[in-house]
Write a structure and sequence with these properties.
It is built from 9 helices and 5 strands. Helix 1 crosses helix 4. The protein has a 5-stranded parallel sheet with strand order 2-1-3-4-5. It is of the alpha/beta class and 187 residues long. Strand 1, helix 1 and strand 2 form a beta-alpha-beta unit.
Length: 187
Amino acid sequence: MAVVAFQDLDNFMQAGCYILVEQLLGAENTRRVEISDLMNETEELKILFRSKPASLQQCTCDLLHKNVAIITIISRGWEGCTSNDTIYMNSGESLECFKMNIQMAIDTAVQGWNGDLCPHCQIMRSLTIKEKEIINMMKNNKSMATITRYQKNRFGSSSYYSRDSIMKKVGITNKIGIYRFVNLIAQ
């Protein structure tokens, strides 16, 4: 028996992913649960589908250590891989690619090969002190001009490079995405 939970995905994506899991494992062997109930489940196989912003919002290392199959769905405006341990799927992929990625995530979780760090922790550890300062200033609603002046006085360089570096590490493809990321981790 497998339990399936969803985090921050629209109804159409949830329905599609659930149907694919039913096709892979059988409808009688699949049950849907809420994300809050996922850790209390006693079933051997637990699957979590979530959006890329949800994967960055909070630490989910405890789920990795409990061998939950975690699949991150990437929508427009985000890029994928920040590590080899996380299964990413693009929302525009074919059904066969979806099925293959779901099966790969299940196999990885069942065999206990989940990584040690979730995407949130990986990104937070990869940020430099300068990048973390920029994020903190952005959390406090400082303008980019204020941040640039501060960084130029403190480090002798502009913060625009650091902002682009943060965007690359997080997997954001547009300038608005950096503010979404800051809002996510500020919650």
